[in-house]
Specification:
The complex is a heterotrimer. Chain A is an alpha/beta fold. Chain A is built from 11 helices and 12 strands. Chain A folds into 2 domains: about 1-95 and about 175-329, 3-Layer(aba) Sandwich (Rossmann fold); about 100-170, no CATH class. Chain C has a domain at about 110-305: MetI-like fold (Orthogonal Bundle). In chain C, a hairpin with a 6-residue loop joins strand 1 and strand 2 (about 85). The longest helix of chain C has about 35 residues, at about 95-130. Classes of the chains: A alpha/beta, B mainly alpha, C mainly alpha. Chains B and C meet through helix 1, helix 6, helix 7, helix 10 and helix 11 of B and helix 7, helix 10, helix 11 and helix 12 of C.
Chain lengths: ~325, ~325, ~300
C-alpha cells in the first residue's frame, strides 16, 4: 500500500444526463493527493469542483453519474465499487465536510444521535464507547463542555459551532482523506480563521490528506500544498501552490489572482475577468475560456491539452504567461 | 412555552365564543326560535309559558347570556323526538363515531405512509405513478359514492363483509366497542376505509412531497456521506422530518374526519352522532342540532389546540422558540 | 427582433405573432388527458342541456310513469312495448337514462351556479382585502381562516340546519363553503399585482377605485382564479350530490344525481344495483372530467412552473 498515494484521480468524467442534453460537469479531470497533503481545488461556482468532490464520495445523484475515468483511493478504484463497499468507506476512510453548516445537521435529531450513528455505522462497539468517542471528537475540535453539548439539537449551536460538529463527525474514524467542500465560505471571517487553524493542526497530527474545495484563493494560499484550478469542468492549471500563486501560467488563474484585493497593489484598480462563466450545456469546441481571455488567438479554437510548461507545472493553454511572470507578482 | 400555551388557550376560548354567537344567531335570529325550541305540537298556552320560561321576550343580548349560561352548565335543551337532554343523546352516540374516526385515521396512516414513502423514493416508477393517480381519485370521488361501491362489491356481490350496523360490541370502561370482536371488526372495516379514503390520499401526497423535498436536503446527503445505510438514512433522517407535517395534518384532519363521518354513518347505518344529526335535521329536532354543533365546534378547537402542542413537542425548533 | 419583423404589416395572416391566448390553447392541447376530460365534459354538458329534446322520457311528468314498470333491469322493454329502458327503471318506473340526463341538468346548474356566485362574492372580498389592506384586510382574512378551519360538510350542515332544507339553501350553503377559497386566492395574487407599476400609474391618473379594482387588478388575477373556479365547480357538484344523498338537498320530485343514487340505495342490497350505479357513474365521470381539465389548467396557468 505504501507505494500508492492516498488519492489518485485519473481522467474523471462525471456527466449529468438531463432532458436538455448532457452536461459534462467534470470532464477529464486528473490529480493526485499524497498522504498528509492538502490539495486546493479552486474554481468559480459551476466549474465542477463540487461535483468532483461528490464523485470521489460516490454521492453523485441521478441524472448524474460517473461516465469514465478512475478514482484510485490507495490503489483501489472507487468508481468500480458497489454501493455497499462504497458505503463502508464513506464516513470511515473518506469523510466529507459540506459548505453550509446550517444545513448539514439534521434539525430534528440530537447531536449525539448524529454522531453515535456514524460510529456505529462502521464499527461494532457499545453505545457507551461510541458516545465516548463522540465526546472526544467534539473536544478535539474545540467545543467547550462536550458532554453537555452532545444532548443539544443543532439549532442550539451557532454556525461556526455547527461546522465544528460536522468536522468532528468527519474525524470520528480518523479518515485517510477528507473532502471539504467550501467549509468556511458560509462563516464569519474570524470563525473562518479558527476553523482553518483547527483543520491544519488536525491534518498535521493525524496524517490525513485533504481536498479543500473553494473559490477563495486566499484560503488556499495558507493551507494547501498543491492547487488545481478548474474552469468549465476541466482543470486548467495544476501545480505547487506557492509557484502557481506567484506566477500563474493560465490567463484564467492570472485573472483570478488579479481580482483578489491585495495590500501589495494598493491604489491600483482591481482587475476583473470580463464576461461570465459559460453554460456547460452550450460549450463550443476549443478552449472554454477563449471568449473571456485577453490572450486568445486563432488557435484557441482547438482545445489545448493540459501539459507541463515548467517542471511540475501544468496548464491547459496555448499561450500561457511564460514571459510575463513578473506581472502577477 | 407557558406564554405560548396561554396565548393559544385564549385564542381557543375566543373562537369558541365566536362560534357560540354564530350558532346562537343561526338558531335565534335567522330561524324562528319558538319553532326551533318548542315542540310544534305544543298548544298556545304552553307556547306562551315556554316563551317566558326560555326568556324569549328578553332582548337578544340577554338571551345570548342566558343561552351561554345554560350551555356552560351542560344544558343544551331537550330533544323533541327522544324527550331526553340533547347533550346526553349526543354523548351516548359519540363513542361509536370516535371509534370510526380513530379507525379511519389509523387506516389512513397505515396505508398512506408506506405508499407515499414508496412514491417519494421511486418517483418515476410505474408503481409510484399508479399510486399518485389513485390519490387523485381519492380526492375527487365523493365519499358516499365510494361507500356505495364498497357495499355493492364486498357486501352484495362477494358477500365478504356485512353492509350495515356496528356488529357485536364489547363493553370496556363503560363504553361499547366494535373493534374488540371479530364480528364488530368485520363491520368496522368498510366504513373505516370509506371514511379514510380522502385522508389516505392526503397522507400519500404529503409524505411523497415531504420525502422528495427532504431527500434534496444537505443533511440527507451528509448522512449518506457519513456512511449510514440507506435504510437508516430513509427511516431515521428522512422519516423523522416528514413525520412532523404528516402527524400535524392527520391530527388537524381528525376533526374533519368526525364531521365527514356524517356521510359514512348514513351509508353504513353506523349508529354514531353523525347519523343522529342527519335524522335530527330531517325531523327538525333543533335542540339536538344545536347541541351537536356546539359539541363539534368544541371538539374542533380542542383538536387544533392539542395538535399545536404536539407539534411543538415533535419539532425541537418550535419548542424552544419561547425560551 | 425576428418576431417583430414578421409581425410587420403586409405579412400573411398565418404568420401572426403568438398571442397569450393562442399560447394558452396550444399549451393546454399538449395534454391528451386534459383534452379528453374537456371533450367528455362538453358531451355531458350537451346531454344535460339537450335533455328535454333527446331524453326518451320526461321523468318529471308523473303521467308518463308507469308504476308497473318499476325496478326493471337495464335493457327491458316497457309495458306497452314502445320503448326500451336501456339503463333500467327506478321504483317509480322512471327511465334511468332520462332521469340521469335531467338529474345532470340540476347537478350542473346547482354546481356551476353556486360556484359562480361564490366566485363573485369571494373574488370581490379578496380584491377588497388586498387593495384596502389594514383592518379591512385582517377582518376579511380572519373570516377566511375561520371558515377554512371547519370542514365543508360541517359548514353546509350548519347552514341547512339554520335555514331548513331546500335547493336555494343548498346553493347558499355551497357559496358559504366556497367563497373563502376564491377570496384567499385572489387576495394572494392581488397583493403581488398591486405593487406593480401599472397600478401605481392608474392611481396617479386618479382613476376611481372600482375601476382600478375591476379593470386593472382583477384581469391580472384571472389565471389562478380560473384554476380555482374549475376545481370548485367539481367540488360544488360533489357537495350538492352528497347533501342530496343525505336527503338535505333538492326536492324528491325533481331529483339530482345525488338523490337518484340515494333513492336506489335501498334496492342495492337486494341486487338491483342499476338504480344507484348508473347515476353514480354519471356523477363520477362529470367530476373526474372537470378535475382532469382543472389539474392541467393549473400546470399551464401557473407562472412558477414556466421555464
Amino acid at each position: 500500500m505504501a507505494d500508492h498515494p492516498t488519492l489518485e484521480v485519473r481522467n474523471l468524467q462525471t456527466h449529468f444526463f438531463t432532458r436538455a442534453g448532457v452536461v459534462k460537469a467534470v470532464d477529464d479531470v486528473s490529480f493526485t493527493v499524497g498522504r498528509g497533503k492538502v490539495l486546493g481545488l479552486v474554481g468559480e461556482s459551476g466549474s465542477g469542483k463540487s461535483v468532483t468532490g461528490f464523485s470521489i464520495m460516490g454521492l453523485v445523484d441521478p441524472p448524474g453519474r460517473i461516465a469514465g475515468g478512475q478514482i484510485l483511493f490507495k490503489g483501489q478504484d472507487l468508481a468500480k465499487l458497489d454501493d455497499e463497499a462504497m458505503r463502508k468507506l464513506r464516513g470511515n476512510r473518506i469523510a466529507m465536510i459540506f459548505q453550509d453548516p446550517m444545513m448539514t445537521l439534521n434539525p430534528v435529531l440530537r447531536v449525539d444521535t448524529q454522531m453515535i450513528e456514524t460510529v456505529l455505522a462502521h464499527e461494532k462497539v457499545s453505545e457507551e464507547e461510541a458516545r465516548r468517542r463522540a465526546r472526544d471528537a467534539l473536544g478535539m475540535v474545540g467545543i467547550p463542555s462536550p458532554e453537555e453539548r452532545l444532548k443539544a439539537y443543532p439549532h442550539q449551536f451557532s454556525g461556526g459551532m455547527r461546522q465544528r460538529v460536522a468536522i468532528a463527525i468527519a474525524l470520528l474514524h480518523r479518515p485517510d482523506l477528507i473532502v471539504a467542500d467550501e467549509p468556511t465560505t458560509a462563516l464569519d471571517v474570524t470563525i473562518q480563521g479558527q476553523i482553518l487553524a483547527e483543520v491544519q493542526k488536525l491534518t498535521a497530527t493525524t496524517g490525513t490528506s485533504l481536498i479543500w474545495i473553494t473559490h477563495d484563493l486566499s484560503v488556499v494560499a495558507g493551507l494547501a500544498d498543491d492547487i488545481a484550478v478548474m474552469y468549465a469542468g476541466k482543470i486548467v492549471e495544476y501545480g505547487d501552490v506557492g509557484e502557481v500563486l506567484d506566477a500563474p501560467l493560465h490567463p484564467y488563474t492570472h485573472g483570478l489572482i488579479g481580482s483578489v484585493p491585495s495590500r501589495n497593489r494598493r491604489g491600483e484598480p482591481l482587475r476583473q475577468i470580463p464576461g461570465m462563466t459559460p453554460s456547460l450545456l452550450s460549450l463550443k469546441p476549443g478552449c472554454a475560456f477563449r471568449a473571456r481571455c485577453p490572450r486568445a488567438q486563432e488557435d484557441c479554437g482547438a482545445m489545448p491539452d493540459l501539459k507541463p510548461w515548467l517542471p511540475g507545472r501544468l496548464a491547459r493553454c496555448h499561450h500561457p504567461h511564460l514571459d510575463t511572470r513578473e506581472e502577477a507578482a | 412555552m407557558s406564554v405560548y400555551l396561554l396565548r393559544r388557550l385564549i385564542q381557543a376560548v375566543g373562537v369558541v365564543a365566536a362560534m357560540s354567537i354564530i350558532v346562537f344567531i343561526g338558531v335565534f335570529a335567522i330561524g324562528d326560535p319558538v319553532e326551533i325550541l318548542i315542540s310544534p305540537d305544543a298548544d298556545q298556552i304552553e307556547r306562551e309559558r315556554a316563551i317566558r320560561a326560555l326568556g324569549l321576550d328578553l332582548p337578544l343580548w340577554q338571551q345570548y347570556l342566558v343561552f351561554l349560561g345554560k350551555a356552560l352548565q351542560g344544558d343544551l335543551g331537550r330533544s323533541f323526538v327522544f324527550n331526553e337532554p340533547a347533550l346526553q343523546l349526543i354523548l351516548q352516540r359519540m363513542p361509536a363515531t370516535l371509534e370510526l374516526a380513530i379507525a379511519a385515521t389509523v387506516a389512513a396512516i397505515l396505508i398512506g405512509l408506506p405508499l407515499g414513502l414508496y412514491a417519494g423514493l421511486r418517483p418515476n416508477s410505474l408503481g409510484a405513478k399508479t399510486i399518485m393517480a389513485g390519490s387523485i381519485l381519492g380526492f375527487s370521488l365523493p365519499t358516499f359514492w365510494v361507500g356505495l361501491m364498497l357495499i355493492m362489491v364486498f357486501a352484495v356481490q362477494l358477500g365478504w363483509l356485512p353492509s350495515t350496523g356496528r356488529g357485536e360490541t364489547v363493553e370496556v370502561l363503560g363504553l361499547r366497542w366494535s373493534f374488540l370482536t371479530l364480528d364488530g371488526l368485520a363491520h368496522l372495516v368498510m366504513p373505516a376505509i370509506n371514511l379514510a379514503l380522502f385522508k389516505i390520499s392526503l397522507v400519500i401526497r404529503l409524505t411523497r412531497a415531504g420525502v422528495r423535498e427532504t431527500m434534496l436536503m444537505d443533511y440527507v446527503k451528509f448522512a449518506r456521506a457519513k456512511g449510514l445505510t440507506p435504510f437508516r438514512v430513509t427511516f431515521v433522517h428522512v422519516f423523522k422530518n416528514i413525520l412532523i407535517p404528516v402527524v400535524t395534518v392527520t391530527g388537524l384532519e381528525f376533526g374533519s374526519t368526525i364531521a365527514f363521518s356524517v356521510v359514512t354513518e348514513s351509508i353504513f347505518a353506523w349508529p354514531g352522532m353523525g347519523k343522529l344529526i342527519i335524522d335530527s335535521i330531517n325531523v327538525l329536532d333543533r335542540p339536538v342540532i344545536v347541541a351537536y354543533l356546539m359539541i363539534i365546534v368544541l371538539m374542533f378547537i380542542t383538536i387544533n389546540l392539542v395538535v399545536d402542542l404536539t407539534y411543538s413537542v415533535l419539532d425541537p425548533r418550535v419548542r424552544l422558540e419561547g425560551k | 427582433m425576428s418576431v417583430a419583423l414578421r409581425a410587420a404589416p403586409g405579412t400573411p395572416a398565418k404568420d401572426r405573432v403568438e398571442t397569450p391566448f393562442r399560447r394558452f390553447v396550444s399549451e393546454f392541447a399538449e395534454s391528451k388527458l386534459a383534452l379528453l376530460g374537456l371533450a367528455v365534459f362538453v358531451a355531458i354538458a350537451l346531454l344535460a342541456v339537450l335533455a328535454p329534446w333527446i331524453a326518451p322520457q320526461n321523468p318529471y311528468d308523473l303521467a308518463v310513469l308507469d308504476i308497473m314498470d318499476g325496478r326493471l333491469e337495464p335493457g327491458s322493454r316497457n309495458g306497452d312495448d314502445t320503448m326500451t329502458y336501456w339503463l333500467g327503471t327506478d321504483d317509480q318506473g322512471r327511465d334511468m337514462l332520462s332521469g340521469i340526463m335531467y338529474g345532470l341538468r340540476i347537478s350542473l346548474v346547482v354546481g356551476a351556479g353556486s360556484a359562480v356566485i361564490a366566485c363573485i362574492v369571494g373574488a370581490s372580498l379578496g380584491l377588497l382585502a388586498a387593495y384596502a389592506g389594514g383592518r379591512t384586510d385582517s377582518a376579511i382574512m380572519r373570516l377566511v381562516d375561520l371558515q377554512l378551519s371547519f370542514p365543508a360538510i360541517l359548514v353546509a350542515l350548519m347552514i341547512l340546519a339554520f335555514l331548513g332544507k331546500s335547493i336555494t339553501n343548498v346553493v347558499i350553503a355551497i357559496v358559504v363553503v366556497e367563497w373563502a377559497y376564491y377570496a384567499r386566492t385572489v387576495r394572494g395574487t392581488a397583493l403581488v399585482e398591486r405593487r406593480r407599476e401599472y397600478i401605481e400609474a392608474a392611481e396617479c391618473l386618479a382613476l376611481p377605485t372600482h375601476r382600478i379594482l375591476f379593470r386593472h387588478l382583477l384581469p391580472n388575477c384571472l389565471p389562478p382564479l380560473i384554476v380555482i373556479a374549475t376545481m370548485q365547480v367539481a367540488r360544488a357538484i360533489a357537495l350538492e350530490a352528497t347533501l342530496s344523498f343525505l336527503g338535505l338537498g333538492v326536492p324528491i320530485t325533481e331529483p339530482s344525481l345525488g338523490l337518484l343514487i340515494s333513492n336506489g340505495y335501498e334496492y342495492m342490497l337486494s341486487g338491483k344495483y342499476w338504480i344507484s350505479f348508473y347515476p353514480g357513474i354519471a356523477l363520477l365521470v362529470t367530476i373526474v372530467s372537470i378535475n382532469l381539465v382543472g389539474d392541467h389548467l393549473r400546470d399551464v396557468l401557473n407562472p412558477r412552473l414556466k421555464k
